[in-house]
Design brief:
It is built from eight helices and six strands. By secondary structure, the protein is mainly α. Helix 3 runs parallel beside helix 6, helix 4 runs antiparallel to helix 6 and helix 7 packs antiparallel against helix 8.
């Protein structure tokens, strides 16, 4: 295996995967603005900020790989240098994870009914991860070569502690949200299989998103410490920021699957309050002019929705009966 394959081969593949995930991020952003136009301006602003940061991060990743593999093609000495784009992409990734962590911590605060010890502990870990990320960026500017950077204690501490705190935040957020959802699920369920399935979906999503980003953090630390001659750890760090953005947008868009679906026919009521609505379906006539038998219609709808605050609302509408006219 040549030195180029050994140093930047895996990084190139991982950046390609990161670009695919950026496409998913863009699609999820579009779906969010199309589906949840009534969300608060603040939340829409957060979504837009995450997408802009992801766009900048993707551009930096592509520019970094292009510089290593094309601009300095054949320059083996340059492969040992820490290009400024690598540090800049890590810095943007730190801001992306900070925004996503802040959003999840806010959810924990709401779901825990304002529990200060739980929220404060997770917030402290998130701040530690942010500080270590900034520290890694500063060290990448001071130590301009990969070999001494990988052998120094400072970068190892900032990367290990920072990604370790990120992993802890992801796991704690998942476990905390799962605990409070499981504790309060009796308030939302009506005993129907459909409502039980929806609550289970929320639980599974909360656990899986935290588990994926936590695994990425742990693997990045292991690869940084063991693969001294490869930049495979750097590519995994770039992918991790995409996972954060997609988990954030996915937690917002998953609400669409639990929104009340509109009826197939138009409901109209000519009376005052309390009047049973009537359904106006398309009109059909037989060739012989035979009248149809008017069927009875009964509708019952029960919905569980997780809003953007992390709250799960459950309600059940009364049955609606009427005749097709």
């Amino acid at each position: 295996m040549g030195i180029v394959d050994e140093v930047v081969g895996a990084l190139l593949i991982e950046v390609c995967l990161a670009c695919i995930l950026y496409g998913v991020t863009t699609l999820q952003t579009f779906m969010y603005y199309q589906t949840f136009s009534n969300d608060s301006r603040f939340l829409k602003g957060v979504v837009g900020t995450v997408w802009v940061l992801e766009s900048v991060h993707t551009a930096l990743c592509m520019e970094m790989v292009y510089t290593y593999s094309v601009t300095h093609f054949g320059d083996y000495d340059f492969l040992g240098n820490i290009y400024w784009g690598a540090g800049a992409s890590i810095l943007v990734g730190v801001f992306i994870s900070a925004v996503v962590h802040a959003f999840y911590i806010r959810r924990v605060w709401i779901m825990s009914s304002g529990s200060i010890p739980v929220t404060a502990f997770i917030s402290l870990l998130a701040l530690c991860r942010f500080g270590c990320g900034i520290g890694s960026f500063v060290l990448s500017l001071e130590i301009t070569e990969w070999s001494p950077f990988r052998d120094s204690i400072g970068p190892l501490v900032t990367i290990a502690v920072g990604l370790g705190c990120a992993s802890a935040v992801d796991v704690l957020v998942s476990l905390t949200l799962s605990y409070y959802i499981q504790r309060d699920r009796g308030k939302w369920e009506s005993g129907s299989q459909e409502s039980d399935s929806r609550v289970d979906t929320i639980l599974i999503y909360a656990v899986n998103t935290g588990a994926i980003t936590a695994i990425a953090s742990v693997l990045s630390v292991i690869l940084f410490a063991t693969q001294k001659k490869s930049l495979v750890f750097l590519g995994l760090v770039e992918i991790q920021s995409k996972l954060y953005a997609n988990s954030f947008l996915g937690s917002l868009n998953v609400r669409a699957a639990h929104r009340p679906k509109g009826p197939a026919y138009e409901f109209a009521s000519r009376g005052g309050p309390g009047t049973v609505p009537r359904i106006r379906p398309p009109q059909f006539r037989t060739p012989g002019g035979t009248d149809f038998t008017v069927p009875q219609v009964a509708v019952h709808q029960q919905t569980i929705v997780m809003n953007d605050h992390g709250e799960v609302d459950a309600y059940s509408e009364n049955s609606i009966k009427g005749e097709l006219v």
